[in-house]
Amino acid sequence: MILEAVRLAFRSILRNKLRSFLTILGVVIGVGAVIAMVTVGQGSSRQVEQSVQGLGSDMVVLRPGQRGFGPPGGGPPARRFTLRDAEALSHLPVARLVAPIANASATVVSGNANVTTSITGSNEAWAEVANWTFAAGRNFSASEVRAGAAVCLLGESVRKNLFGSADPVGQQVRVKSIACTVVGLLDAKGAGSFGQDQDDLVAMPIRLVQRRLNGDEDVNSIQIAIAQGAATADAIAQISELMRERRRISLGEDDDFSVTDMKEVASMLNSINTVLSGMLSSVAAVSLLVGGIGIMNIMLVSVTERTREIGIRLAIGATGRQVLTQFLVEAVVLSLFGGLIGILVGLALAWGAGKFMAIPFSPDPLVVVLAFGFSAVVGVVFGFFPARRAARLDPIEALRHQ
């Protein structure tokens, strides 16, 4: 009986192709939107996790001022750090490695190619602290850092722009007015948590950046790798205590620096992603409700149009249960078709959004199954009332219907 009901449902759907397409459109949009939103949200969360792991999950970042990773605040500029601050921090038992950072921006030239990029000045510990690995070449040495030698490391994006597919190690580039020897090529990391290209950088010894590019002795931030087994909270407390002492901050005065745990940053960003994905998915799920109402309306119209047909079936011996099954199956088939097409549309949209926003494409099979199952439930729930109305028609009155 079910197979016959399915065959009749397909015949009815194909008889009114345009109406059937418009009926399932709401389900397609609802399922597609839910899958796309959830998949993009999960891809964004994965990107955040990968970015933070790329920065080093056991790392804390010391910055001047109280703004942390937020937008710049008003008031006078905060006091910068110095290399002596970084040296003092390296003596803390909770600090495994310390990498002072001096930032700059400059045009890098090689032959006829040039690119404007960010310059990161640091020491030999920076690559390990920030979890950089080398595709070729080597890190700069401690003696090169102390001497401010004209050596540099290239990020993958800079390498592509300047050298194409060639190996840059051992080649000369000009960073502003500095002739610099490329000693290492960093492995690609891709887009960061905020969409920035992490590979668009050149790393140089910090003394070289301070003297030749910035013309000062400022340190913009200090990255600290926590010693294994040390609690992050204890490490932050010791770092804060030392910096308050060095910066002569009196008891009761607020810190003029901030210490940020990268794990907290990852947790915060993931929480934001989860909330936004949930809100967007809830809005998208409303489309499924609208699609279900559309199915119910069309099925009611179909019952009205086929009243005489239903009367004939009841008159020649069909039971009300058989009529109910026929119309219920038709509604479920419509919603399942919408669910299948919606899954394909949703995955395609998520893939396209991932390419556009440079985030991983990570579909969740459970979400796909749930969305498809929900589309079937929509068909059953919203198809039941028109089907029951058809099953309860009086055969004599149905045969009189024009």
What is this entry, summarized?
The chain has 402 residues and is of the alpha+beta class. It has 13 helices and 10 strands. It has 2 domains: 2-51 and 267-400, no CATH class; 98-221, no CATH class.
Draw up the topology in text.
Elements: H1 2-15, H2 17-55, E1 59-64, H3 83-90, E2 95-110, E3 113-122, H4 126-129, E4 134-137, H5 142-147, E5 151-154, H6 156-163, E6 172-175, E7 178-186, E8 201-205, H7 206-214, E9 221-226, H8 232-246, E10 257-261, H9 262-305, H10 307-315, H11 320-357, H12 365-391, H13 395-400
Parallel strand pairs: 3-8, 5-7
Antiparallel strand pairs: 1-9, 1-10, 2-3, 2-6, 2-9, 4-7, 5-8, 6-7
Helix pairs in contact: 1-11, 2-9, 2-11, 2-12, 9-11, 9-12, 11-12
What does this structure look like?
By secondary structure, this protein is α+β, with helices and mostly antiparallel strands. Helices cover 56% and strands 17% of the residues. It has helices spanning 2-15, 17-55, 83-90, 126-129, 142-147, 156-163, 206-214, 232-246, 262-305, 307-315, 320-357, 365-391, 395-400, and strands at 59-64, 95-110, 113-122, 134-137, 151-154, 172-175, 178-186, 201-205, 221-226, 257-261. It has a six-stranded mixed beta barrel with strand order 2-3-8-5-7-6. The longest helix has 44 residues, at 262-305. The protein starts with a helix and ends with a helix.
